[in-house]
Amino acid sequence: MNLIERIKEKARKSVKRIVLPEGDEPRTVAAAKIIKDEGIAEPILLTKEQIEAPSNKAKFDAYAAALYELRKAKGLTEEAAAKLAADPMYYGMMMVKVGDADGLVSGAVHSTGDMLRPALQIIKTAPGMKLVSSSFLMECPDRSLGEDGLLVYADCVVNPCPTAEELAHIAIASAETARTLCGIAEPRVALLSFSTKGSASHALVDKVREATEIAHSLAPDLALDGEMQFDAAIVPEVGASKAKGSPVAGRANVFVFPDLQAGNIGYKITQRIGKASCFAVLQGLAKPCNDLSRGCSVDDIVSTVAATAVQSR
Ligand SMILES: CC(C)(COP(=O)(O)OP(=O)(O)OC[C@H]1O[C@@H](n2cnc3c(N)ncnc32)[C@H](O)[C@@H]1OP(=O)(O)O)[C@@H](O)C(=O)NCCC(=O)NCCS
Predict the structure, then answer these.
(1) pLDDT tens-digit profile of 100-118?
(2) Superfamily of domain 133-277
(3) pTM
(4) CATH of domain 3-124+286-311
(5) Is residue 131 in contact with ligand 1, taking CB distance under 6 Å?
C-alpha cells in the first residue's frame, strides 16, 4: 500500500469534517464527492452565496464578531471583519477556529499566500510550536532511497529565509510529521547545505551548523545531523566517506533545506526528474489547514483532504 492509501485508510477510521472554501470550483466539487463516497472525511463545500444567505445570518454574524475580537488589537474594525467573514476563505478559517470543522483545504484557485495569511492570523501556531512550516512528502520509484522510497522535504512552502533557530524548529516539526503522518518510526533528519561537516566555510554554512546545534539541544533523542550535502545525506557510500560516524548520513529520510528557494527548487527537481509523486502539508498550526497547488488534480485534493483529516486526530 502506498503512502496515500495508508493515509486514506487512517482517515477512514475516524471521519473528520474538512471545509473546502473553494466550494464551487469543479475539481473541488468532484473531489468532495469521492471523499464522501469513500468515507475519507465529511467534506463541507463553502460558497459565497451560501455564506450570505439570509438563513445563515446568525452563523455569519457570530463568525464576524469572533473574527473582530480576534483581530481588533491588530486594527481590524467591525466593518472590515464583516467584509472578511463574507470571504469563504476567512469564513472557513473561522469554522475551524470555533470547532465547527476539523480542518481546511484550499488552493485550487487561491495562491499559497492567500491561504497562508488567514491561517497564520486566525488559526495560529499550536501551543509550544515556534512557527508554521511545511513538509513535502515525496514518494520515489526507487525504494532504496530514504524510508522505502519516501522522503520528507522541508520547508518548501512557507518560510522564505528562516533563521538558525527557525530552521531548528522546522527540523523538529518535520520529524514529527514523518512520524505521525507518514508512519516513519525512526525519522533521521539531515540539515542540508553545500558543505559537509566543515568541507566549506561561509556564513550560510554557519547558519545550518548553528541550526543543527539548536535542534540537538531542543530534541536530544532525535537522530539529526548537519551540516551536510544532499549526496552525503542520501547515498550510504558518500555519507560514510564524507560524514563518518554520523547517525544520519547516507540514510536520512527527512531533509531540511536551508531556505525556501533551495527547498522549493529541490522538491520540484525530485518530482520532475526523479519522477516522485508528492504533496505538501503544513505543520505547526493549532488546527490543520492545507494548501493545494493551483494545478492540482481531483486526486491531489482527495489526498490532501485525507492528510488533513489524519492531522486533525
Ligand atoms: C507566510 C507568509 C504568507 C506570511 O506573509 P507576510 O505578509 O509576510 O505576513 P506577516 O509577516 O505580515 O505576518 C502575518 C501574520 O502571520 C504570522 N506569521 C508569519 N509567518 C509565520 C510563520 N512561519 N509561522 C507562524 N506565524 C507566522 C505573523 O506573526 C503575523 O501574525 P499577526 O498578524 O497575528 O501578528 C509569507 O511569508 C509568504 O508569502 N511565504 C511564502 C509563501 C509562498 O509563496 N510559497 C511559495 C511556495 S508554494
Answers:
(1) 999 999 999 999 999 999 9
(2) Isocitrate/Isopropylmalate dehydrogenase-like (3.40.50.10750)
(3) 0.95
(4) 3.40.50.10950
(5) yes
